[in-house]
Amino acid sequence: MATETQTGASASERMAYRASQELHDGNVVFVGIGLPNLACNLARATHAPGLFMIYESGAVGAIPERLPVSIGDPSLVTDSLAVVSQADIFQCLLQRGHIEVGFLGGAQVDKWGNINTTVIGDYANPKVRLPGSGGACEIAVHARRLLIIMRMSKRTFVERCDFVTSPGHRMNGKSRAELGMPGGGPTCLITDLGVMEFDATGEAVLTEVYPGVTPEAVQAACGWKLKVADTLKTASVPDDATLRLLRERLDPQRLYL
Amino acid sequence: MSTTNKLCSMKEAISASVKNGSSLVIDGFTHLICFAAGHEIIRQGIKDLTAIRLTPDLVYDQLIEAGCVKKLVFSWAGNPGVGSLHALRRRGEANSPQRLELDEYSHFGLLSRFLAASAGLPFWPLNNYFGGDIAQANPAIKTVQCPYTGQTLATVPALHPDVAIIHCQRADVEGNAQVWGLLGSQKEVAFAARKVIVVAEQIVPTEVIRRDPNRTVVPGIIVSHVVHEPWGCHPSFVQGFYDRDNDFYVKWEDISRQPETYQAYLQEFVYGVKDRQEYLKKLESGLLDKLRAKPRMSEGVDYGY
């Protein structure tokens, strides 16, 4: 109800809100499904009305009226600036270097921001078969900056990914520059406990925690020895008006929240 | 003026084109996925298919569950925004007795295979696959040195499917096919394939096509069969005709999780009907009216000179 005071934000709401804060008006963003989609639509409805949203399915400059269930929803086409083929999306927009911000999540991430969305276990004999790369690999290679959004647990924040689908800052000891990768790589890892940024060596450093979360609690949910910034900031959380916007207008069916 | 009328039923188009062991694309990217064609393949009991698509989804999973598929060539396999493909998972993991052969790329990699084939080239270069494990896992991904700059680029080989099935909003009887909304890789797949079946929501006179030639993505010269199949994509969607049945995609997670409910679905909605018209009659009453698109007409354009 519109007059009711909203209770505290859920983990998903905090993550979507915190991710939206990384998006600036006019940014050209390659939008993924799930929380990234919600974060982008939240940013557009609040501080970044001119956010330029591109979807892998071909919609360029989309302004969806409803929250798309899939990145191929028809609401992305209606009133878009352009709808192009997938060849144009990957070659002319992504490979040509026009994407400022990419967004990815996954089943596993490591301290260098490498992401696995392919298999758990051995590739030839997997314990769990995951969906695969889709466009994630090329987004990680080409976006000028990459935002990663994932819930934390020892199972998902691992010392070493079982499979690197989308490259981060270092792979097998080599940096992005040494490997000749054009994009900037991950800048920010947004979790349900806090936020990590990547230092000059390419390693994730905890820089923010949500109110009431200790660095020890974050370390307990992380599979590697976590670097922690000297001064830890408190991550901003959504106010009541933002929560109402998320719950009542952007995701009334609670698809992602 | 001579015209070739290629119009036939789905049953005829499939039995004439898709054989045991064929490699096949039923294209579409969320949009324009021809479930009617997949269901007809299942009914005809065609086996050992190599099923190819960037985004194998529910209809590919149904082909797998029905035992039609030997090998899957893909880049992202799931129920978008909802969950897994459960038949694929059951045949893709270590303890499965009937392991499916998988040939895996990223979207850009598989798309590039179609680009090479559609351009009549043996391979396609892409600035991709640095350091990650995709290229290690797939020996078909190689590298080449650019003869102009010396830069190392990844390459993928051309992929020529035996058959491509392309759903479109409208076509004429020769197979000149017009698409709007999400274009996916329909054009590249059609030009890559050895044989093309066009399935259309509407069959229109050639004059309608000629009045708006920029919208034609597949010219009739590469098409062998034309099928008129209204609502042929449900639960997928056709822009300007009907919306995506998002509720079905959500419900599918429960239906497909257990082999018993999955098989019961196939019995009722695939084996239990003789064609698409019968399938449509089985859907809950009022559903099609609910999904039918509300008009949003575009301004006309002037092609005069």
Written overview of the protein:
The complex is a heterodimer of chains A (257) and B (305). Chain A has 257 residues and is α/β, with parallel strands linked by helices. Chain A has helices at 11-20, 35-45, 86-95, 136-142, 176-179, 215-220, 240-250, and strands spanning 28-31, 52-55, 59-60, 82-83, 101-104, 108-109, 115-116, 119-121, 126-129, 145-149, 170-171, 174-175, 186-190, 194-198, 204-209, 227-234. In chain A, helix 1 (11-20) crosses helix 2 (35-45). In chain A, 53% of the residues are buried. Mean pLDDT of chain A is 93; it is low at 1-5. In chain B, strands 1, 2, 3, 4, 5, 9, 10, 11, 12 and 13 form a ten-stranded mixed beta sheet that branches. Chain B has a three-stranded antiparallel beta sheet with strand order 6-8-7, with helices on one face. In chain B, helix 2 links the parallel strand 2 and strand 3. The radius of gyration of chain B is 20 Å and the shape is globular. The model of chain B has no long low-confidence stretch (mean pLDDT 96). Chains A and B meet through helix 3, strand 9 and helix 4 of A and helix 4 and helix 5 of B.
